[in-house]
Amino acid sequence: MAEISNEYEKVLFRFYSHVLDETVVETMWALKIDPAKGIYKLDSIPFYGSLIATGDEFFAEFDEQEQILTYRETTKHSGNSIVQVIMTTDKIAKQIIRKELEGLNCSSEGLNDKFFAVEVLRKIDYKSVKELLDEYEKKGVLEYAEPCLSEKHQDDIR
Asked: Which of 53, 111, 117, 138 could form a disulfide with 80 if both were Cys (CB 3.0 to 4.6 A apart)?
């Protein structure tokens, strides 16, 4: 992510996570596109599976109860996707898998020793990413979820 400056705003996202089976709150950085109209572009990789990906534009407004700028709805999809990965064994370090994903041009952010979120840019053929994750899942190394899979990436695997 670029250096945080006055071009960026921290935004609160509150949504129901099907993975965690509870409502979660996450704050992420967004680029100001048109703050007067409440339009921002997500510049963080979401951890908890909201239906938004890095590069998506969205509407946010100040929430009096939360006392912070708060996400309301996605207004323009980037075509990027977010995949969540949880390690199910200690046989392989999560850094090895993150490095392999990096080799496929996918950035990731780790939350802890077991969990990380992967950004799959629109230009990347998702089929190769899915094949890698499926292979590790078959070996019992990890499990993954696709909470925000763009139409383009869905087409890649059809």
From this structure: 53
- Rounded Cα distance, 137 and 158, in Å: 20
List the domain boundaries for the chain: 8-76, 81-156
CA–CA gap between residue 150 and residue 98 (Å, rounded): 21
* Mean pLDDT (10-residue bins), the chain, 158 residues: 73 83 91 97 89 96 96 96 95 95 97 94 98 97 94 96
- Give 3-25 pLDDT, tens digit per residue: 556 899 999 999 887 767 888 89
The Cα 10–Cα 44 span in angstroms is 10
Question: Two tokens at 54?
Answer: 């890095």
**CATH class as words, domain 81-156:** alpha beta
For the whole prediction, is pTM greater than 0.85?
yes
